[in-house]
Each structure stands twice: as C-alpha cells, then as structure tokens.
Amino acid sequence: MYKLIVSDLDETLLRDDGSVSQQDLQSIQKLTAQGVKFVPNSGRGFASMQNLLQKIGTVNQDGQYVISYNGGVIVNNYQNQVLVNHYLDWSIANQLYLLALQQPNLGIHVYTLNDVYIYKPSADELNYLKTRQVQYHDFDEPNLNQFKETPIVKIIMENTDQTQLADFKTRALAKVETPLTVTFSSNRYVEFNPAGIDKGRAALELAAKLQIKPEEVIAIGDNSNDLSMIKAAGLGVSVQNGIPEVKKHANLILDATNNENPITELYQRLF
Q: How many domains are there within the chain?
C-alpha cells in the first residue's frame, strides 16, 4: 500500500499553461480522502505554491506538506512551518552569481527562504513565470552582499539554450571547489544546491518523519532534478514527456504526458 506520493510540478503535474486539470484535482482529492499524502516536490519556493495548495485542498493544513527548493526545505503547510532546511553557503552562492555575471546571456534567480530575486529575466522567462504565478523581485546588483545575513536556499541560471547551461555548469564546477548538487530542469534552468541535497533525500526525510517506509513512497517527475526521488522511492514514475534518463530509471512510465491527466492515470492504475 502506497502512503506518500511526491510529485514534481512543472512539466509533470502542471500542464504547459501552468494549470492542473480538473480530473487530476479530483484524483488528488480522492487520494487524500484515502489517507495518501500528496506532496508537491519542486524546485520552487513554498510561497509560490500556495495557490496550488488551495486548489488541491492542503493549504494551511496541519499534517500536509511541501518539499521545495529541490529538497532544500520541507514545510508543514500549517502556517508554513519549516521542518527541515539545507541552506547554500553565502560565499558559494556569491561566487556562482559573480561567475554567471560573466556570461551575460544568462538570467539568474536567487532563492531565499521566502522570496526569489531575478537578474535580467528574458521576455520568454517573464512569460513562463507569469503562467506559473511566480512572484519575484527584480535584482540588478554586482554581488549578493545584501544577503549575507539572509539564508540562501539555492541559485539557478536560466537560458533556453541547453548548451549555454551546460557550459556554465562546466565553468562553475571548475571554479567552485566546494561540492554541489547540480541539476537541470524545465529545459531552461541549471540549478545549484548544497552537496547531497536533492528531491530524493528530502522525500525520504519526510517519509521517515511520517513513519512511512521508502517502499511505500511514489515519486513522479520528468527531468534531471527528479532523478534522485525517482531512484529513492519505492515506485519511481515518469510522465510520458520525461527525458530519456528519467524513463530509464523509472519503474513505471505513464501513457499520459503532463497535459493528459497523469495523476488520474496513476490513480486508476495503482489505487
């Protein structure tokens, strides 16, 4: 019996327009009624997920949870109580930011616990953020000095050209001596978290707190930042639009893409 489902958002639960289908909302509500925890496990901050939680019925609910920032923070939805945090050292975040400034075609997102600050988002990126209802602060500073006393959870660089992101990853890993967890997401981001921090570790951390065994966990996703949870869960699931590496490691590949009610298919096949 599966007791916990951790689900990626963008390109998995969310359709291309950023919405969740009515069928999937009903399936999530059925799962919750059966006692199954449905937990968004996303690279986003928990503050940007409140509208989604409202729709699935877990907003401000004690005993319901969100995993955010690629596993950097686990939150109890009641008053957004932070249960677990893994922050990125300021000096490392600043080094990555300064390095990204040298590659002017990159947008930069700096995530603190409650806010996101964005340096030079492209028009395409602004539209993408709008469909995801992400609130952000414009940021155009030569360094991250203003965040020396503010916890930074992660930093990401944005470009829809994957070669630009791959090049930056190579440069960053060559320059930054401290080990990091580096992942790609949404075909537009390269993301940097502290070493060892990822969605899979966080999923198991939450499961342990809830006294749920790893084999009782389902993880569903589509991209490289979902690999860790797909490998860690008792059942790793890929949507049909998942990248080849995700499909390779998934125990189950859905027929449905993110646009075709994937949670409903999962519910019908397993519950």
A: 2
Residues 108 and 86: beta-carbon distance below 8 Å? no
Nearest to 40 by CA among 153, 177, 202: 202
149's CB contacts (< 8 A; 6+ apart) are none
pLDDT of residue 110: 98
User: Model pTM?
Assistant: 0.91
Domain stop point among 172, 194, 216:
194
* pLDDT score of 132: 86
CB of 220 closer than 8 Å to CB of 28: no
> In the sheet that 189-194 helps form, which strands lie side by side, from edge to edge?
137-138, 116-119, 107-112, 152-158, 189-194, 180-185
Give the three-state DSSP class for 219: strand
CATH of the domain at 37: 3.40.50.1000
Claim to verify: residue 169 and residue 139 sit in the same structural domain = yes
In terms of DSSP H, where are the helices of the chain?
Answer: 22-33, 50-56, 90-101, 123-131, 162-175, 199-209, 227-232, 244-249, 262-270
State which residues form the domain around 67. Answer: 4-85+197-270
